[in-house]
Predict the structure.
Amino acid sequence: MTSEPTQAAVVSVDRPTDWWKSAVVYQIYPRSFADSNGDGIGDIPGITSRLDYLADLGVDVVWLSPVYASPMDDNGYDISDYQDVDPMFGALDDLDRLIAGLHERGIKIVMDLVVNHTSDEHSWFIQSRDPASPKRDWYWWRPPRPGFEPGSEGAEPTNWESAFSGSAWQFDERSGEYYLHLFSPKQPDLNWENPEVRRAIYDMMNWWVDRGVDGFRMDVINLISKHELGDGVPLPGRTRVSCFFFTANGPRLDEFLAEMNAAVGLDARNLVTVGEMPGSTIETARSATDPENHELNMVFTFEHVSLDSRPGGSGKFDLAPLSLPALKKNLNEWQVALAEVGWNSLYWDNHDQPRAVSRFGDDSSEHRVNSAKTLATVQHMHRGTPYIYQGEELGMTNTYFSSIEQYRDIESLRYHSDALSLGMEVETVLHSLSVKSRDNARTPMQWDDSSHAGFTEGIPWLPVNPNYLTVNAAAEIEDPNSVFHHFRKLIKLRHDHPVVVYGRFELLLPDHEQIWTVTRTLDDQVLLMIANWSSQLASVPPEAIPDLTGAQVLLATHEDSAALELEPWESRIYLLS
Ligand code: GLC
Ligand code: CA
């Protein structure tokens, strides 16, 4: 590891106040983006070789999922050294070159900050296993439940279930105590109550800012402050309770975030911050993004991506139908709540979610293109900063694996074995996985129609989606009517029209089962979006929208569009004045 950044990386970039409000962010999941050396795993030089593609798309920021040293139990979200790059992805020099290459193209870079937990192979945790070490208190160690033999069944300090199934406590022979891991046993939770932990993290963040990064996407950041460690009441038929309900949004969350902001100069240096916050509410998000509080710029809510799970059910794999009015209502609530204070992030997709076009749209060959476009139109016409996940701009779809052997993700594998041990039908489990597993998002990026979609010259770590022969970047760049070009135009609209960025948001027809229509208003400019969010014809009631006389169509999915009868997944954006 070289400790000094190369000269190129520290090219200074312009970061005016609130620059991120007019930005579009593109998320790269490095493992699945582009492989430069034929080992079947995407890497940093692979990303660097594709920068012109990103510039052509027009995005302003790249959010890079973790590339740090890691045993890869959770594909890099288990970090063993925050200040080094994993050899699988390259070296620090490669990252310096990537940062420089992005900055040369006017694109900023956001690093993933995973500081709720480390890897169990991080030197801090290795030291912490020793009860006499000064690092003992850097993690959450607890004795067994009173009256239970250490390591025996039921002896875990609380009845919490980890996010990846199984107990959130792992027994450690050496001291006869347990440590807390809200995710896998290889992801022990850091104890943020300890000021030395916080200091070490802020120092590390400053080191990255000095190296040229423009901000942070903060992994499960609302878990850093924990509520009291105690038992909860399990659902019928279960022995454990989901740890999120018990630990999320702890009492010191705002304090820790404000302290971090000051210690790293997040606001002072106009760095961009977005906090991933499962279990956050509008209230927690409002307080975390209120500029007066100097915490974060944006939050990733999970509410809209939980609407297709059964309320009060066993979690994300407990599927439920999604209704359009419910989805519109939820997004609208966030729009209204963060209209005057704070700022929204806008996303359908990321590396933890199934592919948007399969989930919210219609990925059949007949409707895939138009539904991917319409999803994008609706996303980009809400008020907030849009996040595009790699391949979303191509309308990439779920992969529909049929056997558990095809899955790689720790969440999928642990869910499968846990659900079967609880007596669930294997077909049900496999169906849930094919709809919701994170592997869907992680199949390799589809660059062209050559073998393995041009992702690698070796054997990809996860199979390429067979539809790459038609769904791929090279083909879409050639086709002016592709999903890719639709995204390009949406990004350009944001850059050209302040009303897209700042316009006041209003949802019309909230209860309509097919039509999604909103207006955005800035001074005397009014923008109207109408969209058919269904695979059937739909009509917009003329009395429900503003008069279209003289309106200019800024972007439409279909040619010759004029009537208020919309084709399946047809959408339009008008400028009314
Ligand atoms: C976040 C990440 C996810 C990871 C988890 C634990 O939710 O996005 O990929 O598994 O945190 O770090
Ligand atoms: Ca590689």
Summary: The CA atoms of residues 50 and 403 lie 33 Å apart. The longest strand covers residues 515-522.
